[in-house]
Amino acid sequence: MSTIELRYTMFAYLPYQPDVNAQDLQGNTPLHFVVAPGRVELVRPVIDQGCNVRIANLEGRTSLHLAAMLYKTIPPIILPWLLEAHAKINVQDQAEQTPLHLATVAKQTEAIKVLGKHGARQDILDNDGKTVLMTAFPLNLFQDFEDIFQGSALSASLFKSIEAGAVESIGRLMEKMDRDSWPPMDESGYTPFYVAAKSGKPAGIARVIQKANEPGFDPQSILVPKAVPTALSIAANGGLDIVKAIMENVRPETRQKLLKQADHVGKPALFWWLHKQAVFSHLVDLGADMRTTGRDGNNLLHVAAEFSYKVKFVTEKIETILGLLVLKDMLGETNKDGRTPREVAERGRNPKKVEFLDAVMRRLDMLDSRE
Q1: Is the pLDDT of residue 371 over 60?
Q2: Domain presence at residue 225
Q3: Any idea of the CA torsion for 71, 72, 77, 82, to the nearest 10 degrees?
Q4: Which residues, 6+ apart, have CB-to-CB distance to 25 below 8 Å?
Q5: Is Repeat there in the keyword field (predicted)?
Q6: Mean pLDDT, range 202-226, rounded to an integer
Q7: Do 183 and 224 touch, CB atoms closer than 8 A?
Q8: Would 324 be classed as within a structural domain?
């Protein structure tokens, strides 16, 4: 025992009241010093003398952090004693790690169970954005949480695993989740499908969908909620791979509903993919309806005329698949503001689009006159 440690621990036996909360240059109290080496005969006296179990050292660690991390090398009674003395069970150190984080990192399985039974939260994130469950998985400690899983922690860990593209972790976490209340939502109201689609990681969204197709889950849960962007529209920042991962893994009946589903502003998924021709063509090949309109009455040509999308590509696609008559009808359709696609382009001061649409209309009129 060091001189300073001996001096601190002897305070517990003095007839007068010393400062049992005194801290050394590293911020350690007498309690830190007696907990670390497991001096069980001194822990209780130091606590009884009034040492504050909540004081943290310069690393932000309390005596509970130490007891959790060193559980196998110290008498097991020390951890419950600290909890009985009202140590903060979810306190975070400088690395934002709780005692449960440290117990997990140190593979202290019994400490995990003790802390879990005392209500230690499993959804707190450390500096690396990891919950204890995410930390436990690569260490093969996931099974040690079997009897103490917390629903909120499973959800938080799932969302973070999806963002990280941790495919194996996604599957294991979903296995433990309550299927009757699936899907969970994050603070923004997004489900795992939306977070996976937004992450742009094809393997992640594929795994979520595959798992959600298993018995007990609702295979159409990718369609909810309806007050936010759809899984297809939110994937618009990705590319063909993410769209294929979605469409190839959902069930056929769900696929058709996804193609038709409008988002929170009333736009079908096809509208969001006008800027990426390969994805647009893929969705059309799967059965997306190019005659669809948004809540504002805009058809595909209105949208292409308003934004910096290629009107020529959309026009040719409609003509090739739907025919000239449909193309002419769509060019003449008005939105809720009473404007045709040409008038939308004109209002947007885009003379090239106006010129192109005029040329298309003249060509269609000539074909009509020949008939």
Answers
A1: no
A2: yes
A3: -10
A4: none
A5: yes
A6: 90
A7: yes
A8: yes
Length of the chain: 371
Asked whether the beta carbons of 342 and 358 are under 8 A apart, the reply is yes
Residue 276 is encoded by which pair of tokens? 């990426």
Which residues fall within 8 angstroms of residue 327, CB to CB, at 6 or more apart? 315, 318, 319, 360, 364
Structure tokens at 288: 């997306």
Averaged pLDDT score across all residues of the chain: 90
Rounded CA-CA distance 182/135 in Å is: 23
Q: Given 112, 147, 182, which residue is the final one in a domain?
A: 147
Quick check: helix, strand or coil at residue 14?
Answer: coil
Q: Based on the fold, state whether residues 82 and 5 are members of the same structural domain.
A: yes
**For residue 268, which of 304, 224, 238, 298 has the smallest C-alpha distance?**
298
| Residue 207, number of CB atoms within 10 A of its CB | 25
Domain hosting residue 174, numbered range: 150-269
- Is-cis flag, bond preceding 183, omega within 30? yes
Token match 């050292």: residue?
A: 57
Q: For 275-302, how does the pLDDT look when each residue is reduced to its tens digit (9 = 90+)?
A: 889 999 999 999 999 999 999 999 999 9
Compute and round to an integer the Cα radius of gyration of the chain.
Answer: 31
Burial of 108 (0-12, 13-18, 19+ CB in 10 A): buried
Tell me whether residue 240 is in a domain.
yes
Residue 42 burial (C-beta neighbours within 10 Å; 0-12, 13-18, 19+): buried
CA gap 253, 255 in Å, rounded: 5
